[in-house]
Amino acid sequence: MDRYVHLLSERFPNRSAVNTEIINLKAILSLPKGTEHFVSDLHGASNAFIHMLKNASGVLRHKVDELYQDTISEQEKRALCALIYYPDERLELIKNGEINPANELPQDLIANAQAEVLNLWYHRRLTQVTDVARAVTVKYSRSKVRKLLPKHFAYIIEELLHESSIERDHNHYYNAIINGIIQTGSGDDLLIEMSYLIHVLTIDTLHIVGDIFDRGPGAAKILDVLSTMHDYDIQWGNHDILWMGAAMGNRALIATMLRVSIRYANIESLEEGYGINLLPLANFAIETYGNDPCTIWQTRDFENNPRLTRSAQLMAKMHKAASILQFKLEGQTILRHPEWQMHSRLLLDKIDYTQGTITLGEHTYPLTDSYLPTIDPADPYRLSEEEEELMVQLERSLRKSEKLQKHLRLLYHHGSLYLVRNGFLLYHAAIPMNADGSFTAVDVCGQTVAGRALMQRTDEIIRCAYFGQGTAQANALDYMLYLWCGPQSPLYNKDQMTTFERYFLADKALSEEQKGAYYTLANQEQTCRTILTEFGLNPDTGRIINGHIPVKTIKGESPMRANGKRFVIDGGFSKPYQEKTGIAGYTLIYNSHGIQLVEHEEFESRQQAILSGCDVHSHTLLQDFSGHRMRITDTDLGVELRQQIADLEKLRDAYMAGEIQER
């Protein structure tokens, strides 16, 4: 007898228990599949992301429209949605008198009512929020909903969800519950709990296809919110790897993370988000570049950026200091790993420090900034004593940040380089390919791999950088730099990263970066079919979801590529990208009816959303409704549940045959 079946008997000790579970699992298989939301490239845009979760990318507003159509006004719909999105804040405004509940109710209702306006408002909103909650729970089993209910309100919420305010026989009972809630002063608490239940159940699973960090200030807030969610996963992006490597002590990535953060005036993420002390960097920058105007190092859009909390001159000096550290530390790492074949990125030894020029190949170019006092021409990649001391302080600060280390653990626990789920293949950027469409063979820490094997091996190395030991861990941690900027990295896949050229050379042609063959080939259906097959998916029904490359909607680009086989869903959640994209992000929604691709407009502000009920306007670009409503039996979960049923049936047979004694 199968050892697993014996173990299963501990949980299901007799045929009655087995049959009950089989009935339960078969019933679950018949339920509609849960709604999956796919987003990418959040880049610290926490307010827009949080609002997207609260309104479920427009799904909740659509539910309200379906439920009430033209039976309530547009103003009341907006007020109801704002309450569901931000219940704590909205109720506070009502209690403080900043919102008059009478303005949110139909005037004929107020005129004919015997109760006080506030009680009338509570009765109407509790009924409406219950209606919405009932609409979003309909696709779940009662047991699943029950597990998500707050203990102190579980009985009341369950009764409300399964009673009706319309059916005559139950009307008095339903109203008695609502009135009891109001009379006991529990209206606020129940509205808040019901709203949070709606948030949880509207998005069954959230997939983040890379790049939580950089550009915007709210990466820590995003990860704090994710830590409270019941089902989500992350496919690491290049900017996530940058921060993960920095948090683990990769010095080149620490310097790079600092440079990028300062360049975008995003030191909030470091100082406020994670409590990183930047004072040592500021002091070093002042001492080293005190009389240097640092003209080319001005923080991006420093004159108009409200997040620029230090003087522009100090930020420019810090920017330069971090950049020089990056170039030195990158050089040290590349020299340690000749197998990366990145010697072309060793540029500090190509500089004539007397003339202020650099020789690349047969050509010599003037540097836009030749004041480089910390570089020793005889040993240009060596840190000065002051730089070494600074790096020790910065590394210590990152390692001692409890929140950063907590978020690092979360990124590992919920993250992976790629994911196969319900017919979708998710990865952030690329799978290196040759011009002929074959997969590129890449040396990943001593193993030459390609295609799916490359992705699996790279995932292993990323984990080894955190969980490994000794030389293997040290090499894996170094490899995090290659993943950030290496030519055959599945998170980068360009011939070079020309950061140095963009700063130091006036000729923009010298800073061009050539994308790998993947980025062109992946727009062809046959290439996508090849990739899907490589990962064990049906090429006829499977689809690929990527982020990484902003979709320039403003220039007519489409997120749907390769005849619908591939979706690129980097739509510019973060404001710095919105000039390129013309929009403010995409959400791909996959529910029991099919696929919807939702395009978002810019999120105005959290305060406006709370106060006036203004929302992110979302436009559905694609609806792929097949006519066959997908059930859980059609999903990966369905495969698991059917296997569980098969195992339970073996246990039942064992009981019936007397091979295992019932208890």
Q: Compute the number of strand runs.
A: 17
Gyration radius (Cα, Å) is 29 Å
Structural class based on helices, strands and sheet pairing: alpha/beta
- Per DSSP, the total helix count is 28
Measured between the Cα atoms of the first and last residue, the distance is 18 Å
Strand order of the largest sheet: 7-3-2-1-15-16-17
- Specify the overall morphology: globular
Low-confidence stretches: none
Percentage of helical residues? 40-55%
Describe the structure.
- With 663 residues, the chain is of the alpha/beta class.
- Helices cover 50% and strands 10% of the residues.
- It has 28 helices and 17 strands.
- It has a 7-stranded mixed β-sheet. A 5-stranded mixed β-sheet has the order 8-9-12-14-13. The protein has a 3-stranded antiparallel β-sheet with strand order 4-5-6, with no helix packed on it.
- Helix 17 packs across helix 18 (312-336).
- The longest helix has 25 residues, at 312-336.
- It is globular and about 90 Å long.
- 42% of the residues are buried.
